[in-house]
Amino acid sequence: MPVASLFSGGKDCTYVIQLWYESTRTLPDYLIFIEPKWESPHLDNAHLVKQLAQLLNIKLITCKASELERVLMEYNIDTLLAADVYVVEHVKWLSEVCMRTGTELVEPIWGYDTEYLLREIVESGISFIIIGSRPEYSRHVLGMIVNKHTIDKFLEKVRSLNIDPLGESGEYHTLTLSTPLLRASIEVKNVEYKHTSRYDVVLIKEYSLKTP
């Protein structure tokens, strides 16, 4: 039966796909990008979300939150993967949608310690760039690339700022640059910066693909 994974292009949802692959040796059949209702670093970099889906070789479906139930039914989705850690309201909403469609909701990283989880994500081979942050954190983390070489420095920064290491409360947002599942990694070449009412954003204007 078809499996779908919610996908913003960020580190957490990428890790969930990786965990699913490790346990089943299969990738999801679909990725679902839910367009945010408000300004979003992921929406501003939606061309990279599409690129990541292509590198994973998984069909990307884009919809609004209000359309998720229709999408699950239209594609006959049996299992939905999500990357929530402790935001109860979001899980409650997904649970209600999945209950109405007869879809099994799988939350592989729910309840994890967020600093432990961040280290696990990076140790698994995922690297990412901070594409958005709340303005008060921007000069410290915006545009930073986090990988095995920079994880300790990044954790020092988030501890000093007293924010959630994973950014689970929306303190910062990420875009995956590499993972063992990708056919190529993304190398950022040129960016622009954008200020919105909610976030400071890195707009990735130019990039290249590097094959292993």
Structural class: alpha/beta
| CA-based shape | globular
Beta-strand fraction estimate: 25-35%
Strand order of the biggest β-sheet: 3-2-1-4-5
The CATH level-2 architecture of the largest domain is identified as 3-Layer(aba) Sandwich
Provide an overview of this structure.
- The chain has helices spanning 11-24, 41-44, 46-56, 68-74, 88-101, 114-123, 138-141, 151-161; strands spanning 3-6, 30-35, 59-64, 79-81, 104-106, 127-133, 145-146, 172-178, 185-195, 200-210.
- The strands form two sheets. Strands 3-2-1-4-5 form a five-stranded parallel β-sheet, with helices on both faces.
- Helices cover 35% and strands 28% of the residues.
- The chain has two domains: 3-106, Rossmann fold (3-Layer(aba) Sandwich); 114-210, Alpha-Beta Complex (putative n-type atp pyrophosphatase, domain 2), CATH 3.90.1490.10.
- A hairpin with a 4-residue loop joins strand 9 and strand 10 (200-210).
- The two termini are 32 Å apart.
- It has 212 residues and is α/β, with parallel strands linked by helices.
- The protein contains eight helices and ten strands.
- Helix 4 (68-74) packs parallel to helix 5.
- The model has no long low-confidence stretch (mean pLDDT 96).
